[in-house]
Amino acid sequence: MQFLDDSLHPENQDKVVITVAPYGPEWMPEDYPEDIPVTMEEQIQKAVDCYEAGATVLHLHVRELDGKGSKRLSKFNELIDGVRKAVPDMIIQVGGSISFAPEDDGQAAKWLSDDTRHMLAELTPKPDQVTVAINTVQMNITELLTLEDCAGTTLADPVFRAAYSEMTVPAGPAWVEEHLKRLQAAGVQPHFQLTGMHSMETLLRLVRRGVYKGPLNLTWVGIGGGFDGPNPFNVMEFVRSAPDGACLTLESLMKNVLPINMMSMAMGFHPRCGIEDTLIDQRGNRMTSVEQVKQLVRVANELGRDVANGKEAREIYKIGTWYDSVDETLAALGMAPNRQPGVKNVPLRK
């Protein structure tokens, strides 16, 4: 992405789109009973509370009544329907992992089968987005999740930590292509959650091949353990390589969340918060998802950036926009065209 001399001026930046992830599937309700909703009514109300605080994108997971992450698409349909009726302008973004929580003590934390994950394209009512990973990678969230950070939670238990330390994200080439095909056919926008430059490069190759023809909403996920670490140099390399027409959100883990979000908003990009990312503030105190949203609203105001409402967020994310050809996609994303026969040197953007 390019930065002009006035790119850091708030009047030249989009309004801030705040994503909230308030369901935290890696935690159990007893880890933070004040802020982990369990009943369907509580889960819907959590979305409403976050929206009223200023969040316009809901990263959605679902729980069963026993507190465990749900793997039933019927439960996802129920929550999506409830949220859609309660806050119709909120962008509903289904977490593409569905639920990666262990079923029982000592069991590995695994994502669901490829076929089940493909069925996210068939959810009814239809979500606005489903998050999509690119390239299979290790996802050891415990690498940066210290025992001090998770004191008093189930993730302080060595058995659970061992299960989560071995988690991987299955996102091989055949699965990615089929998943993108199904999402596009259903009119559901993928939101790409990228683990680093290798994921970015693979995604851009898919765009150039015409596997994906739509807006690029990207989240850089700096959580370590197989993903990029929360290092500003990693962030800036990702930003530098992102197409000019992409929409960027930055995401991290625990005490890294606020600094990464502040960097993101200062550069004109967007933040993500919620208990899926952190249960604590910078001093180690418990912090609810709503409190985190309100904090980001305050920071955005200090930076001079207005916070987008639901309709404005949909425009920024280009929800419902699709392109008819590879050339149209490349042009819309501000990418150089594919090389044509006989073209020498670097193909120039029009």
UniProtKB/TrEMBL annotation:
Keyword ATP-binding recorded: no
Needed co-factor(s): Zn(2+)
Residues passing through the membrane, by range: none
Family matches, as Gene3D superfamilies: Aldolase class I
Keyword tags: Metal-binding, Transferase, Zinc
Protein's name according to its UniProt entry: 3-keto-5-aminohexanoate cleavage protein
Native organism: Crenobacter oryzisoli
The keyword Ligase is annotated on this UniProt entry: no
